[in-house]
Amino acid sequence: MARHTDLRPIVKLRSTGGTGYTYVTRKNRRTNPDRLVLRKYDPVLRRHVDFREER
């Protein structure tokens, strides 16, 4: 049986706005094997931008 940390690793989401702002979250590897892309708020730019998973 897979460990909890193996199935749901902690990933960093970095802003595509070029500010270097990051969010930290967990993702399920079984349902999302690709890199995660979420649209979230960047407080440096003061608007919503895409945040991409970095390794």
Automatic annotation (TrEMBL):
GO cellular component terms, A-Z: cytosolic large ribosomal subunit
Coiled coil: none
Swiss-Prot/TrEMBL keywords: Ribonucleoprotein, Ribosomal protein
Segments passing through the bilayer: none
Superkingdom, natural source: Bacteria
PROSITE patterns (alphabetical): RIBOSOMAL_L33
Any one GO BP annotation for this protein: translation
SUPFAM superfamilies: Zn-binding ribosomal proteins (SSF57829)
A single GO molecular function term of this UniProt record: structural constituent of ribosome
UniProt cross-references to NCBIfam families, sorted A to Z: PRK00595.1, rpmG_bact
Similarity comment: family membership: Belongs to the bacterial ribosomal protein bL33 family.
Protein name: Large ribosomal subunit protein bL33
Protein source organism: Plantactinospora soyae
